[in-house]
Amino acid sequence: MPTFINDDLSLFYDETGSGPLLLILPGNTASCACHAGELEYFGKDFHAVSLDFRGTGRSQRLASWPDDWWEKCADDAAALIDHLDRRRCFVMGTSGGASIALLLAIKYPEKVSGVIADSCAERFAPENLRSEVANREVRTQEQIAFWKYANGDDWEEVVNQDSNLLMDFADRGGDLFKGRLGAIMCPVLFTGSLKDSFIPDIGKQNIHMAEQIQGSSTFLSNDGDHPFMWTCPDDFRSVSGHFLKKGF
Where is each AB hydrolase-1 domain found (predicted)? Predict the structure, then answer.
């Protein structure tokens, strides 16, 4: 089982393929187990690696998730790049993983050659965050099966920790980047569905994010939902593959 240590935590990752390094970063309550399809597809051309963030998947659990959990996860991703003995990589993230991918590019510009940020926003309306947490109180069998597959038998602990994080984030205004997107030095591709049920204004938000980052682009579809990566996989893989090929 491939693991490494950062910040005194044991962190799990999965990998396949060879070539340039491509990090694949999951959403908050997902894990690398959920990205077997992306690992297989992109592993044909890349050394594709997906990380289980601290407190999730098969990585070490936390007593509580700190307010700066996303920032800490970006630090973990940077440590994984070092652990793999690579200088730079491309990063692909969806939902919360997209936010972490952008934070990685902000904090460690020397390590990131390009970012694909799927189904993400610059700011989250506090009422939307609170609504997302409230909706989790009635859990469908499909949701439970997903979370258990992603995180194991203690999936409920992971979901509750994330819900607490989202509520605290809502209380702090829902602004993760705090005006730092302009510090990103690499190309960024934003992808998403205009029917995203979690980010209703994703079109407006992604365009505004792209305007702040030189060399960035946006792909928005009338099909799919949240996340676009999984609800329209063929379209996502096609546009992502084109972006990645331009990076060489």
Answer: 20-120
Q: Which domains does the chain have, with CATH numbers?
A: 3-122+185-246 (3.40.50.1820)
User: CA-to-CA distance for 207 and 220, rounded, in angstroms?
Assistant: 10
Query: How far apart, in whole angstroms, are the C-alpha atoms of residue 84 and residue 192?
Result: 30
- Answering whether pTM is above 0.70, one says yes
Please compute, for residue 115, the number of CA atoms within 13 A of its CA located in the half-sphere on the CB side: 35
Q: Which amino acid is at 134?
A: A
Token match 């240590």: residue? Answer: 5
Element (H, E) at 90: strand 89-94
pLDDT above 70 (res 187): yes
Cα dihedral 143→28→12→17 (10° resolution): 90
- Separation in Å, CA 37 to CA 166, 192, 238: 28, 18, 14
The pLDDT tens digits for 106-165 are 999 999 999 999 999 999 999 999 999 999 999 999 999 999 999 999 999 999 999 999
Give 47-70 pLDDT, tens digit per residue.
999 999 999 999 999 999 999 999
Amino acid at 24: I
- Write out the two tokens for 11: 């962190």
Cα torsion 99, 83, 183, 132 to 10°: value is 10
Q: pLDDT band for 248, please (50, 70, 90 cuts).
A: low
C-alpha dist (Å) from residue 111 to 36, 150, 209 = 24, 28, 21
Q: Which of 21-25, 93-97, 244-248 has the lowest mean pLDDT?
A: 244-248
Give the DSSP letter of residue 54. Answer: T
Name the token pair of 123: 């700011």
